Structure formats: C-alpha cells, structure tokens
Amino acid sequence: MKILIMDWPGFGSETIKRLLPKMGIDTEVFAFPANSADIRNGEALGVKIAERILASRADAVFSFNYYPVIATAAHACRTKYLSWVYDSPAVLLYSMTVFFPENHIFHFDSGEVRRMRAEGVEHAYYLPLAANVEDYDRMVPTAEQRKKYRADIVMIGSMYREERFRIFRKYEKFDEYTAGYLEGLLSVQEQLYGVDVLTPSLTEEIMERVLKVVPLSEGHGDSYETAAWTYANYYLAMQVTIREREHVLDALSRKYETVLYTPEPTPYLEKVINRGSVDYYKEAPLAMKCARINLNITLKSIWSGIPLRAMDIMGCGGFLLSNYQPDLEAEFVPGEDFVYYESLDDAVEKAAYYLEHEEERRRIAMNGYEKVKRYHNFRDKLSVILQAVEADVD
Fold it and tell me: Which CATH class is domain 133-375?
C-alpha cells in the first residue's frame, strides 16, 4: 500500500511521516501550501497534485484537514482522498467537492459528521484526535523546569483579542435592535454547551441588518455555506469564547493562582499571571505536566468535539478541568478520567475541590492518561483511516 502525504506544518505532521513507514506503509511526501489562496480551486496546484498522484502510483492521498483542491485532483485521478479534520470552524467542508466518491473524511466532531451525513456526504466518519503520548513520556520535567512551569491552574490558548480578530470593533456600529438581539444570543450561548443556538437564531431579517455593518465576502463558486453559518461560527462563536475565557479565568484567579499562556497582554485580567507565548510542542507539554489543574475552555464553534488541547492535557498526564463537550463525555468517564464544569460557579467550586483533594486529582489524571494512551494514540487512529483504502468503513 502506498500513501501520498500532503505535508504542511501542523498537528501530527511529523508523527504521521514517521509512523506510517513503521506500519508497513510506503509513503511519498508532497509539500502542500496549506496557507495559500490556491487550496480551494487553484488550477495550477491541482494539476501538480494530480501529476504527483499518477507518478507516485499512490493508492490514496492523505492530509490533515480537508482541501477542495486535493479532492479535485484525487477525483480526477480516481484515487481515494483521506482527510482527518481537526480545525473548527472548517468552511472548506462546505465545498461541493465533499460529495466526490473518492473522499473519506474523518472529523473530530461527531456533530459535524452527523451534519455531513444528513446532507449526503456518504464517506464522513467520526474520529477523535490523538495525543502523541510516546513523545510526551520522554519529556520529563527537570527540577528547574518544575519550578518554572508550576502553577495551581493553567490555561494555554488564545484570548482572541489579537489584532487579526479586530472585526469585533464593528459591533459598536450596529443599530440598537440588532445589538440587543446579538447580545442576547451571546449571553444564552455562553451558558449552553453542546448545542448551537447561534446559527438557527440568525434570521433573514437579522442577517440583513448584520451584513450592512459587517459585510462578508461572497462565497466561492463551489461552496454552499450560508452567511448565517459563517457569521455564527466565525464571529459570534469566537465572541462567546472570548467572554467565557475571560469570565472563567477572572473568577478563578480571584481565589487561586491562575496562569495563562497566550501571545497578547491581558491587563483586563488583573489577577491572572500571563506568562506569554509557549511553544506548543516543546514547552506546552511541560507546562501541562507541572500544573495541578489544566483548564480547557473550548472554542464555541466546536459544538461536540474534543479539542486537541484536552487530548494533549490527558496525554501528558495532566488533570483536565473542561467545559462540557458531548464527545468528551462519550469517550471518557467524567469524574474518573477528567472533570467538566457546567457553569462559572461550578468551575470555581470544582477547582477548589480538586486543589484540596490531591490524591483524587492525581488518580483522575492517571486514569485519563491511561485511556488516551490506550485508545487515542496515533497508531490506532491511523489504522482506522487506512481501512478506508481497501474498504469503506462505517
């Protein structure tokens, strides 16, 4: 069996290239420009990919995340395209190319899989992400590193106030009715987990008002996402996430030592210790291992799935305190492998309890670690994906 890997820097790339040959798979690597403007329907790029597929005589093409240009090339060559999606929101999954029969799309969010299946995407499968436990096990913190990274509560992630997210400045220009309506939606969604109330609540009337202030670029010729979906998942969901992260971190920091690793200053979080950026692959695992509690506050556009952060925390042997996510509850046992909170007050209460009950906290962290190591490792996940090369999987 031969796999042509569409390679670009990101989650799991080096692991995949290293692991597939060990699993007896012949591989060839194509340097894929994942951040270019050609990833949807770039003709020249599509031709290059198709030529490589034919020259390599690959049985299938693989990429992390789904790209229409790869799907088009694979379809032209009648070669299976295996993609493992970990980004959210993933607007490229609203390309009409998802209906090509050569596609086998594996997605970390079960809700998205149900949506795609309902829309007629035959080969869409739920596959949670993996943690590279073997590499994490080799990262044993030294005494100096434990001192550097120690903390009662840690969160690693963006606060979404960086310059590239300045779209929210336009909120001030909405008329009173629109602003009030959106404010109500944001408040309700912040309190709810596992269900999207944003998209279905954006009526035609509201979207007409919204688009006058925040015009969206017109969809591509091969896409079928709606303006309401785009606005809900790219803008409003992020705004909800901003609020929840600020509220939870602020509440926790007023009672406990709370550390945040994020690229931007956070003067609005007076009590939070902001340690700046941290390299996700070289430093974040050490921070996760040295924290007593690791906090996961999921980007709201991930309606059901288990974020990579949560999987990595458990894969590092860290104690995970997360907001509720349906897939997290389905794959792990709450109170045994991890702990979830259902509200701001609940987050504070559970943090207090597990900071005081160290033995129980350590036991839960170890259970989560063992389960990730056993069931959510790259080798087993790749075995599931590779089954699609020879037969359709359900």
Answer: alpha beta
